[in-house]
Amino acid sequence: MQPTVVQLGSLKRSGLWAAVEKQMPNIRSAAKRVRQDLRRRDRNRGYRSAARTAVKRARESIEDSDPEAPEAVRQAFVALDKAAQRGAIHANNAGRRKSRLKRMQKKALAE
What is the pTM of this model? Predict the structure, then answer.
């Protein structure tokens, strides 16, 4: 069975598709599963990246005593919740990050 080529934008650009193509399974259902996993991985990457960026901005605004810090923390909570809801990160992982952010925010306000 010939490997099936699927249009998966960033995977082809990053060169990951070539590695996957070499290891393409012989069973049709397994090949489909590989294609689905690659698509999902690509989709989840965006949610994880958005969550990381939002948390980083919130941390920086807390450290700089920015008056917009509460809004940045709220945006980080939204991004983390969305990533957890989509399954990009585990729910406990999102909860832990939110807890740490909130603790950092309270500590900064106390000082």
Answer: 0.73
